[in-house]
Write a structure and sequence with these properties.
3 helices; mainly alpha; 60% helix
């Protein structure tokens, strides 16, 4: 799987790219719950991917609350 340029570590100072372990964690989480391909998720903008993580997490929390 290729890592998009926005997520690669940069050299020469400045801000380092998004941590690769966190990127894979987000991709695995969304792929598991929504059955989207890793390729789709790796090309998604960071902000949008984080939004999907938050939405799925909220759904899971609501379902857990309702089952109590």
């Amino acid at each position: 799987m290729r890592i998009p340029p926005c997520c690669r570590a940069r050299t020469g100072g400045g801000i380092v790219g998004y941590p690769i372990a966190r990127l894979y964690e987000e991709v695995a989480f969304i792929a598991y719950h929504l059955h989207w391909s890793p390729e789709q998720l790796m090309t998604m903008e960071h902000r949008e991917r984080r939004r999907w993580v938050a939405e799925v997490s909220q759904i899971n929390q609501n379902r857990m609350q309702a089952s109590r």
